[in-house]
Specification:
Two copies of one chain form a homodimer. Chain A is built from nine helices and no strands. In chain A, helix 4 runs parallel beside helix 7. The longest helix of chain A is centred in the middle third of the chain and has 25 residues. Chain A is elongated, with a radius of gyration of 19 Å. Chains A and B meet through helix 6, helix 7, helix 8 and helix 9 of A and helix 6, helix 7, helix 8 and helix 9 of B. Chain A binds a DNA duplex through helix 3.
DNA sequence: ACCAGCGTTGTATGGTCGTTCAACACGAAA
DNA sequence: TTTCGTGTTGAACGACCATACAACGCTGGT
């Protein structure tokens, strides 16, 4: 009749919970708070599990990175229908993509990507498919089959602007809101010769 | 005739060398490498000095933050003549502002700003004078005396775009070079109804 | 040459870090 | 109910961390 000392979970479940806890820790305290102790405490697990499921802290960080990219990848994945540029941009400026916790996570990860070669290589892969999706949507908007140099330039600029918007939303929240973000994107798009709404 | 055990420096000199060493460490290894040991080793000083001059690690980090902002603040300071918008943008896209080491430092600091209230408050101060300078230059470019809402919007967008450009230059160097950065800024400016060169 | 002031050193301390691993205990199968 | 596989625990370990501080020694002034 004594209370069980722990709950046994399916491997995927436990791994997922550790990743979620890792993201929570990153969001709250940045990369310096990303410690085995903090993560396990946040997850309600014991210290041994991070090593058991991810081989160590770096493995969990990589898994957290992949999980952080999930909402973005989901946004650009065609659900049996190619996305329009307007729809894509609306999604990228939506509350779903601009969740403050998510942005803080990115800030913490960017600082590591700049310094960790493994994470950087992985990031480059994601970045390229991300940009390709935007360039593709842009090309289609202009009636082209495949992106040309103009589309690539616009995609690069748009990604940089969105990154900057996310950054400012994190470190100077009062100065960058949804309406200013949209105004900034509108300026860029108008400069590229297209108007959405 | 024995070699001296250490060199004695003027307080300002020693403090400055510690800050420079701190920036070097941030640039190389990010915020996780920002430890007393690493910094003092990089500076050739002993461990006690950080506490002596800055009261602790946090004090040195604040000083490093201020030092990291110096090139930007210097760029927007009117040297007895108000800056034109074209000149300001040229400076912001110059090699002096786009030094890779400097960008990596920013990445490391941003992650901390998002999480550290003291740093964030300090950042907000710098950000506001930074944006004010850009808005002022924009207003003058349009023949206005004082910035209006349009100028503020453009300044906000421009800062976000530049932040994004710096970010991409750091974490995906091959994908964002000087020419793409300029193309992105040109798009934004054209969207705002002005063309520089 | 000497002295005094102060910039500098480095050890001691207590805490936290990541990793390892042998013992443990839950839960499904028999 | 008993057994067995394996998910889980947490103590042990060495390395590293930030800080404090008493002793040290360089240097400018005398």
């Amino acid at each position: 009749m004594t209370a069980p000392k722990y709950k046994r979970l399916a491997p995927e479940t436990r791994a997922s919970e550790l990743v979620q806890a890792g993201l929570r820790v990153l969001s709250r305290g940045g990369i310096t708070a990303f410690t085995i102790d903090n993560i396990c405490k946040a997850s309600g697990a014991s210290r041994g599990l991070v090593g058991h499921y991810f081989g160590g802290k770096d493995g969990l960080l990589a898994a957290c990175y992949a999980a952080a990219y999930a909402p973005l990848m989901q946004a650009i994945a065609d659900d049996n229908a190619p996305l329009t540029l307007a729809g894509l941009i609306e999604e990228l400026l939506s509350d779903r993509q601009l969740r403050p916790e998510g942005l803080t996570i990115w800030l913490a990860l960017w600082g590591e990507i700049a310094v960790n070669p493994v994470l950087r290589a992985e990031h480059l892969r994601h970045y390229r498919t991300y940009r390709a999706a935007i360039a593709q949507a842009t090309a289609r908007h202009f009636g082209r089959d495949r992106p040309d140099a103009t589309d690539e330039t616009l995609a690069t600029a748009l990604i940089a602007l969105l990154d900057g918007i996310w950054l400012e939303s994190s470190i100077a929240p009062g100065e960058m809101g949804a309406e200013r973000a949209r105004a900034a994107v509108d300026l860029l798009l108008r400069g590229a010769g297209l108007k959405l709404g």
